[in-house]
Amino acid sequence: MRYQGWLTWVTLGLAVAFIPMAVDSKPAPINFSSQLTRLIEQIDPNFKTTTQQTQKREISSQDTPIEAIVQNRQLARTYYYHFDTDVSAGAKIVFENAISTYNQTGIVKLLPGSGTGRQNSITFFVYSKRMPSEGNTTMIESGHGGPQIIQQTGWNAYTANHARAGLNVYYPAAAIRKSVAIHELGHALGLDHSRYRNSVMYPIDQGNTNLSAGDIGALKTIYGSGETKK
């Protein structure tokens, strides 16, 4: 009995020691421990609903899920981006590296500039947000990003995505990273969280800077192959 009690405490200690500390502000389904699942449910009340909505899709395909408001939209592949005035040089570098990663796919085309209200745009920003501690553990929000669909129907109809992608500079070591910028830009372009660790859209930062086959597949679903949409 004493041995079993000692083993339990060692196991709990290791679990705490290896809980990843960098997450963005929209945790979604992950599937490697029930303890971490419960912790994420405390942050995201919609966790179970999201799991149910994406489970059927992921059984038949490993493509990264797509944000609900982007699904079935006809979006042009070209985006115009700009930085808020308070974005530091270091943050700009990681954002630009993320932009390059997506441009290299040939599926989307991100260009510097403002564009028009009818065109896709992305605003890159920074913010400072301190996270509350839960016991001896702090789950860090490293960034936030997402799409905003603007749609006009009828005569002269159009659909545009006026998206945003930001880094939480309160935790610069965790947030000012290429992997985080790629993740938040992925949200802006319409990618939702993936349950696969090799995806850049995994909700806890794994340091991934290369888009997975599932990430590429989801981008093609939204934007096509990149050869026809402008």
From TrEMBL:
<dbReference type="GO" id="GO:0031012">
    <property type="term" value="C:extracellular matrix"/>
</dbReference>
<keyword id="KW-0378">Hydrolase</keyword>
<feature type="domain" description="Peptidase metallopeptidase">
    <location>
        <begin position="72"/>
        <end position="225"/>
    </location>
</feature>
<protein>
    <submittedName>
        <fullName>Zn-dependent protease</fullName>
    </submittedName>
</protein>
<dbReference type="InterPro" id="IPR001818">
    <property type="entry name" value="Pept_M10_metallopeptidase"/>
</dbReference>
<dbReference type="GO" id="GO:0008270">
    <property type="term" value="F:zinc ion binding"/>
</dbReference>
<keyword id="KW-0479">Metal-binding</keyword>
<dbReference type="InterPro" id="IPR006026">
    <property type="entry name" value="Peptidase_Metallo"/>
</dbReference>
<dbReference type="GO" id="GO:0004222">
    <property type="term" value="F:metalloendopeptidase activity"/>
</dbReference>
<keyword id="KW-0862">Zinc</keyword>
<keyword id="KW-0482">Metalloprotease</keyword>
<keyword id="KW-0645">Protease</keyword>
<dbReference type="GO" id="GO:0006508">
    <property type="term" value="P:proteolysis"/>
</dbReference>
<dbReference type="InterPro" id="IPR024079">
    <property type="entry name" value="MetalloPept_cat_dom_sf"/>
</dbReference>
<dbReference type="Pfam" id="PF00413">
    <property type="entry name" value="Peptidase_M10"/>
</dbReference>
